[in-house]
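Q: Sequence in, structure out?
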Amino acid sequence: MKLSLENLEKKVNWKGYRLPDYDIADMRAKTKAEPTWLHIGAGNIFRAFPAVLAQRMLTAGLTDKGIICCEAYDEEIIDKAFRPFDNLSICVTLYADGALKKEVVGSVAESLKMSAEFDRVREIFCNPSLQMVSLTITEKAYILRGPDKNYLPDVQADMDNGPVGCHSLMGKLACLCLRRMHACGTPIALVSMDNCSNNGYRLQRAMFEIINSWFQHGKIDAMEFSYLTGQVSYPRTMIDKITPFPNPKIATVLRKDGLDMVKPVQTEKGSWVSCFVNTESPQYLLMEDLFPNGHPPLEQLGIIFTSGRIVEKSMEMKACSTLNPMDTAMAEFGMLLGYETINCIVRDDDIRTFITNLSHVECMPLGADPGVLDPDEFVHEILTVRYPNPYLNDTAARIMTDTSQKVGTRYGQILSNYYNSPVPMHRVSHLRFIPLAIAGWLRYLIGVDDNGEPMQLSPDPLLESLRGKLEGITLGSTASREQLYPILSDRTLFGLNLFEVGCGDRVIEYFNELIAGPGAVRATLHKRCNDKDTDLLI
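A: Exactly. Output:
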C-alpha cells in the first residue's frame, strides 16, 4: 500500500496510525484561495515540526487553512518526498523506551519549487491573507560573502541588477516582498526558524544589505524602500527538535505495516528523504511577538509568543551554553573515536564528562537564563532523555555538517562574554573545555581518526579552505602558532580573534596533544577531563 490520498480515504490498513481528522480537499482549496502560512525549506525538520503544528491546529478546529511549503535549495526533495505521496507524510516519534507514535500528516496544502514555480510563490506572497513566511534554510543561507570577503556571485548580480530576475534566496525574498507591496501593501512577517542565535536579526541583516544596495543605486524608490524596511518584520525564534535523517530501521517497521516506497533516498545535493520522518518527542518553539498581519493561533498549542529579549535569551542559552556547544564537541570527538550515533557517543565516559563540564563549568555560568526555560533542567533532559535515546539514531556526521558556519555562535559568544566580564574569576585564561572543543574541531579537520585511519568528513562550505590551511600537519607532527594563526584569528569564523581574547595559544597546546600520534585523542580527552587544577561538577 502506497501513502496516498486515495488509500488514506479508504481508511483501511491504518491500524496504529493517527490520521488527519479534517477534510483535506476542503483544507487545500481554502488554503490555496487564502493562504496564511508559507514555509521555505522543505526538509525533515519542516515535516516533523511546522507541518505537524499546522495539523494540530486543523484537528482542533482552530483554523481551516493548512501550510504551504516551498524548497529553494534542493528542489529534488519536492519530487522525491512530497509529490509521489500527494503531499502527505508520516511522522514517526521515537520515544526512549522504544515506543513509536505514527501519524499521517496531511496539513501540507501545496509543495512548490522556488525556481520552477516562482510565479505561484509570488502569487502567494501577494495575497493579503498571508500572515507569516517561516524559514528553515540553515545558517549558511544568510551569509552573503565568501571567504574572500567579497559578495557571492549570485548576491552581487542581484545587487547590480535590482529586483528583477534575482538569483540568491535573499534577493528573491526581497523581490517577493516588493511584489506584495505593489499588490496589496499589507505587512508580512518573515520568521527564521533556523538553529542559530539571533536568527531573525541575521535574516534582517542579509535582506537589508541587498535592499540598501538597491536603494542607493536607484533600483527602488523611497516608498518601496520604506515598505521593505518598515512593513516587513523579522521575529526572532528559538526552535529545538532533533530530526535525524530517515532511519532505514523505521522504514522496515513501516513496510511491515504494509506500506510501500518507504526506503530513504538521497538527492543529488545530498539530502536524505523519504515519505516519513523520524524525530524525538521533546520540542521547543518560542517566537518574538512581532507579527504585523497577525499569525496562526499557534499559542493554543503551547507555542510561546513573548518579547524578543526572552526569545534571544532562550536561543542564546541553547546555542551558546547548552545543547549546541555540546552537540559539536560530542560529534567531533565521537567521530575521532570511531562512533557513529549520538546515543553511543554519550555512553563514552570521557566524552560524557567532557560535554557535561563544557556546559556546566564553562558555558552556563556566563550564558543566558531566559526565565521561561530552566537551563539546568534543559541540560538534564538532553543528557538523560534526548542524547541516550537508542531509537533516534542521530549521527555525528549529520551534526558535523557545516560546522564552520556554527563555531562562532557555539563558542565565540561565550568567549566574548568571558573576555568582557569584570568578574576576576571569569577569565579566558581559566578556560579548559572550550579551548579543547575548538582544538577537537581542528583535529577532526585533519581527516584521520584516533587510530590514524582516514575518516570521512561531513560537508562544509569551507572544508577545502580550512584543510588547505592545515596542510602538512599530520599525526606525530607539531603545529606552530604561525600555521594555526590564520584559522584561530579569523573573525568570520569565531566572531573574534582567539589570540586577542587569550584563548588561541591554549587551543594550539591542546591541538598538539591531540595530534601527538595514534591514541592521542583518547589520552588527551581523558587527561583534560581529569585535570587536578580544574573544578569539575561531576
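The mean pLDDT is 94.
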